[in-house]
Design goal:
211 residues; 4-stranded antiparallel sheet; single chain
């Protein structure tokens, strides 16, 4: 919560407030929620207060967390521009997912040489780590599993997040027909495909192909 005082305590002043990325574990049996990771657990880090906009993105390849503080009004209790307290900066930080997180990337969108009244800085709605813009060897398809949902097969697998994967079917392992394209969940290389036409054939074998 922005006030860190819900529901009855006195709201914390913005200059004393801060934000963080947090991960929770949900025990549906015992109806308990517990915190398992927090970017705040890093030692000697800046206290960044961003009351609105931001994002936390899980990076499956590195197992890091990319956090966007999109509208930072106070850094360690001080406004980015002391001469114009309406100013805001943006910080984009990548943390390791360790018990004590480490910062491996830190981008500040702010002109530190400009402290004139009227300089209000920047706002970033959210940031997303995109795959490498340059060519690279594709990651292999892995963890291919076929489950059933409403008596229809569902293929799930992990693969290169920069590529597109088609699903082909065959009844004899000789003749293959493309039946659709797997959908990627987010941008972390996790794919799935629902075969809505599986009941049209008595036997259906699958393979995943890409270009």
């Amino acid at each position: 919560m922005v006030s860190r005082a819900d529901p009855f305590n006195t709201p914390v002043a913005n200059s004393n407030n801060y934000g963080s990325a947090e991960e929770f574990s949900l025990n549906e049996t015992n109806m308990q929620v517990s915190e398992v990771w927090n970017s705040e657990w890093q030692t000697n880090q800046d206290r960044l207060f961003s009351p609105v906009v931001g994002k936390a993105q899980w990076l499956s390849q590195t197992r890091d967390v990319l956090v966007t503080y999109g509208y930072v009004q106070f850094v360690n209790g001080v406004a980015p521009n002391p001469r114009d307290t309406d100013g805001s900066m943006a910080r984009i930080k990548e943390y390791t997912h360790d018990p004590i997180p480490r910062v491996v990337f830190d981008l500040a969108l702010w002109n530190y040489t400009n402290s004139t009244p009227g300089y209000v800085g920047n706002l970033v709605y959210r940031a997303t780590r995109i795959p490498d813009l340059y060519t690279h060897p594709l990651e292999p398809v892995a963890d291919l599993v076929i489950n059933e949902d409403n008596q229809l097969p569902v293929l799930t697998f992990s693969a290169d997040p920069t590529s597109t994967y088609s699903i082909q079917e065959s009844s004899d392992l000789k003749n293959w027909t493309t039946v659709g394209t797997a959908l990627q969940s987010g941008d972390d290389g996790e794919y799935c495909y629902y075969d809505l036409d599986a009941n049209e054939t008595a036997c259906r074998l699958y393979r995943v192909v890409t270009q």
